[in-house]
Amino acid sequence: MCRVTGVSGGLALRAFHDALAALDPARLVEEALCGPPVPTLLLGAGKASVAMARGAARALGVALEGGVVVAPDAGDVDAGGLSVLLAPHPVPDARSVAAGRELLARAAAPPSGTELLLLLSGGASALAAVPALGLTLGDKVAVTSSLAAAGASIIELNLVRRHLSAIKGGRLGAAARVRLRVLVLSDVLGDDLLTIGGGPVTATRDTPADARAILDRYRVALPVAIARHLAGASDAPRPDDVRLQQIEIDARVLAGPDEFVGAAARALAAAGVEVVGQETRVAGDVVAFATRFATEVCALAWGTVPGAARALVAGGEPTISLPAAPGRGGRAQHAALVAALTLAQAALPPSVELAILCVASDGRDGPTDDAGGLVDAGTAARAAASGCDPSAALAACDAGTALAAAGALVTTGPTGTNLADLFVGVVVGARG
């Protein structure tokens, strides 16, 4: 658990939790389904699917004709009476394949007279993963894991995934036989429906050759079966595909990274903090971003008068290139340690306190049970005093170990949603 010692850190954490509450998935879905209910079969996949299903169950009542949602291991399983299939994240296994096949089968054979409601959120790509015909899950995981470790963006990753899949890239939509309503919580910058969850109901605009070009750019070694598959024609539906045109598909994004940053900024303003800047499309190298963000927070400190509180807020999905054997952590923890080292080297006025929060909205940063880190100008020194060299930890992608040594880890448990990462820098001027 993070040791919060200052007003600035408390304000940053409060903004995070208030933003999550403001964008509660169950409430967003319930509000989106207002109006006369119709008989509906519900399908869902993603880190927010269970909470979204609860909202749908409240809104639809007796009109809900059953369904199934796919959710991460060790998360919430109260889906309003619906069946919940558990699968791992971020690396799929046989349960992910079984769950994906179950979604495809149900979409293809809905009860007579029903509509289909799909609740989609970030994480669905791993939770419901059906390899394309002729490919193994092991080959697919090896390729996409190598691509992620090389620092590919989520857009690049999901482009490749959908060309190795039997459910992504519009294929679930092509299997549907009735009107399909889709409600989405986005973890993707720009809320592109073809990228969120691999775009299971959205027509594919790219080609296998585009996927191969990404893999070549990152020098990912390809198993023979995948190289052969990407050299062939795609079965993914294109925008003019009759399979998607024969049914009505109504897709709506309920919230995404932009709304998450906005909610955090409003929470800070409600607490009396002046939000000086908001950035909603953070992408690219995490070290470059975190260094810049921390530097901007330091500059903000010099203009903060006694008794005032000011903040910068940002959100998005920066990328990180991993060594062969990375240590403990994820991109939010990595950003937090970069920020801590930047603050340690900065000249700061003695009359302010400040803190920087870097946190994953789903409560699980990378393959860890920690959400991120909350750091200040003394975090790096506290890590060193506890026997952990923060610079060496950063080089080894072992930020979690250094943050733990400094008492700077933020651990929330699964939050039941997924809206990308949040970065909050708060400066409080000390009263004289």
What does this structure look like?
This protein has 17 helices and twelve strands. The protein is an alpha/beta fold. It folds into two domains: 7-18 and 258-429, glycerate kinase, domain 1 (3-Layer(aba) Sandwich); 24-255, Glycerate kinase, MOFRL-like N-terminal domain (Rossmann fold), CATH 3.40.50. The strands form two sheets. A six-stranded parallel beta sheet has the order 3-2-1-4-5-6, with helices on both faces. The longest helix has 17 residues, at 286-302. The radius of gyration is 22 Å and the shape is globular. The mean pLDDT is 94.
At the third CATH level, what is the topology name of the largest domain? Rossmann fold
Number of helices: 17
Largest sheet: 6 strands, parallel
Fraction of residues in H or I helices: 25-40%
| Rg calculated over all Cα atoms | 22 Å
**Structural class from helices and strands?**
alpha/beta
Average pLDDT taken over every residue: 94
N-end to C-end Cα span: 32 Å
CATH class bucket of the largest domain: Alpha Beta
Which shape, going by the Cα principal axes?
A: globular
Count every beta strand, where a strand is a DSSP E run of 2 or more residues: 12
Q: What's the CATH H-level superfamily name of the largest domain?
A: Glycerate kinase, MOFRL-like N-terminal domain
List low-confidence stretches: none
How many separate domains make up the residues? 2
Order of helices and strands: HHEHEEHEHHHHEHHHEHEHEHEEHHHEE
Strand content: 15-25%
As laid out across the biggest beta sheet, the strand order is 3-2-1-4-5-6
User: Which CATH architecture of the largest domain is right?
Assistant: 3-Layer(aba) Sandwich
